[in-house]
Amino acid sequence: MTRQLKYIRAIVAMMIVVVATTATAVAFDGESQFAKLDGARIHYKSFGKGKDALVLVHGWTCNLDNWRDQIPDFAKRNRVIALDLPGHGQSDKPEIAYTMDLFANAIDAVMRDAKVERAVIVGHSMGTPVARQFYRKYSQKTLGIVIVDGGLRPFGTKEMREGFVAMFRAPTYKEAGAQMFAQMMGKLPAPDQERIKTSFANTPQHVLVSAMESMNQDELYGPDKINVPVLAILAKSPFWQPDTEQFFRSLAPDFELQWFEGVGHFVMMEKPKEFNEAVIAFLNKKALLK
What we know:
Layout: H1 3-29, E1 32-37, E2 40-47, E3 52-57, H2 71-75, E4 80-83, H3 100-113, E5 118-124, H4 127-137, E6 142-148, H5 158-169, H6 173-184, H7 190-201, H8 205-215, E7 230-235, H9 244-251, E8 255-260, H10 267-270, H11 272-285
Helix pairs in contact: 3-4, 5-8, 6-7
């Protein structure tokens, strides 16, 4: 092989790597779009085509960037939409009540704007009660739910929850948030931890307090059934009560649970490969989004 041919082949190989890397970046970046809800803009990104989609819903004070390691894999299989809930990320942040009802309506507004008719809702943390509320309001649009380290019942006593909210009403709420997230981020690399901290810091206090108050309302956690396929992916932790699986199954008859060990609260960020495989296997098994 001549030196010139070797050089050409090396250049081609390098271009393939660049193109593949760029394709992955584009697959996550997408194009920002905005739906409207009561005059406020809801930011989202859409990947792929189709009337059914996997809708990714982030947790409290986070944003759609949390799903950057999921979107490329999921978008190979089906349409994917990731949104910033009202008050979060690039969505508008008016001084209103940030309820789970509002968040559910925001998902619907995004789906209508994106011309999506039905969805599997993937909800991380606070995204779990959001997904459940969406199912209550829009059951005909819900194909399934994926719970990501989120609960179907309130945590602790009402007094404990009220005390927790009180920390975030105080002027020192940013310090309280930093301490809380430090305990939740497991072994996440420093850049990922920084993204989570920055997202919290950029969420206005009136948004995070209102959202937490709503998330702690007992009426969100009623005994009504979830009659679509449900997958729960939870971080193995003493935090969960011993009857967690039994309780989840009592609400969702078509239910599967996977425990992930050695991870913190941001399961999908710590073990993206395993998480993506688990979600895709669930979609395939239930013949969802096909």
